């Protein structure tokens, strides 16, 4: 193997510690790479170890394999392990034929030379929403296609808002949201809960407010970024948000909202099933930008990618597998199973027709933005780490939002 390629793989392995804030993780099993492919076996690696043999997901993989005339050997990995296992497999020359991986990791693998571009593998991405496709783009090239997306929005408790005299239709920007929180507190209830923990989850949840202020990740210490962090800090100072947000994961934040005492919770599409079990009437509102309109929230969800193979003759069959997995019919079924919003308008329309409650989530996804978009690529993990440290510093009261972000910007450089 070329020494430069080995160096890129080693460097990439150090930058794959991006926690997948929008994806549940559990243990997966190991697998060899694409051995046995010459006999008609194609390997697929995915981050869905929760789906065992016989599930709808694995049956879909088998069906797509049968249509392509091959046998599919599938392995589900823990999400946090998948990137490093992929890098190791590339070093050993036994990469899987199809790799389904969380979108922030795509640029890391692409930078390491592990993935083919859609120009190379001839995948058709013309129907995919451009803002979702951008999460898998780096250096002007596209690496794969999204299988689905999730993002963040505000869940709200209708009974709490009614008691406080808040009309949700009036909540259109930061000023009106803060006014609603003040009314809720005055009525003896709790305002808003979110995750500001010192991990990628904290950055993930802060980004809609950061972007909603007009800030950019290339300039953490802008006046716009400071206004977003000041908003969160002031909510804590005023008692509109609990101090527990400093340690809240998205799961523990949801548990606070599920208690029935909070008016709002920032959380994701993946909580829809839990929302239905909460025992109270709820609604969903796209996170408002500072001055009206929906803020861009970060996209979660995976990309279907095609790793580099020494035998380039395999790509034709691999393309059939990926095309099958991302077809209109199969996207609808898969994204329903995963509680994802589809990446194409055609399938999104089908989802809303079948379940009107998905409308605000489709709207949120249409406004969403990839964390590695703007060609940040492998720079994102370092920037994100400094961002969550700034959030922690400001919310804990150890420094001002301005100083926290100035320190973050200097470190991110």
Strand order of the largest sheet: 2-1-3-11-6
Question: What is the number of strand segments?
Answer: 11
Pattern of helices and strands: HEHEHEHHHEEEEHHEHHHEHEEHHHHHH
Q: What is the share of helical residues?
A: 40-55%
Quote the beta fraction.
5-15%
Main beta sheet:
5 strands, mixed
How many helical stretches? Answer: 18
Q: What does the radius of gyration come to?
A: 22 Å
Mean pLDDT: 90
Terminal CA distance reads 32 Å
- Overall geometric form: globular
Low-pLDDT sequence parts: 1-39
Tell me the structural class. alpha/beta
Task: Explain what you see.
The chain has helices at 3-14, 56-68, 79-92, 103-111, 118-121, 130-133, 158-164, 174-186, 200-212, 223-237, 250-258, 272-277, 315-325, 328-338, 345-354, 359-366, 380-396, 401-412; strands at residues 41-46, 71-76, 98-102, 137-138, 141-142, 145-146, 152-157, 190-193, 262-268, 282-285, 302-305. The two termini are 32 Å apart. The model is unreliable at 1-39 (pLDDT under 50). The chain is globular, with a radius of gyration of 22 Å. It is an alpha/beta fold.
Topology record:
Blueprint: H1 3-14, E1 41-46, H2 56-68, E2 71-76, H3 79-92, E3 98-102, H4 103-111, H5 118-121, H6 130-133, E4 137-138, E5 141-142, E6 145-146, E7 152-157, H7 158-164, H8 174-186, E8 190-193, H9 200-212, H10 223-237, H11 250-258, E9 262-268, H12 272-277, E10 282-285, E11 302-305, H13 315-325, H14 328-338, H15 345-354, H16 359-366, H17 380-396, H18 401-412
Parallel strand pairs: 1-2, 1-3, 8-9
Antiparallel strand pairs: 3-11, 4-5, 6-11, 7-9, 7-10
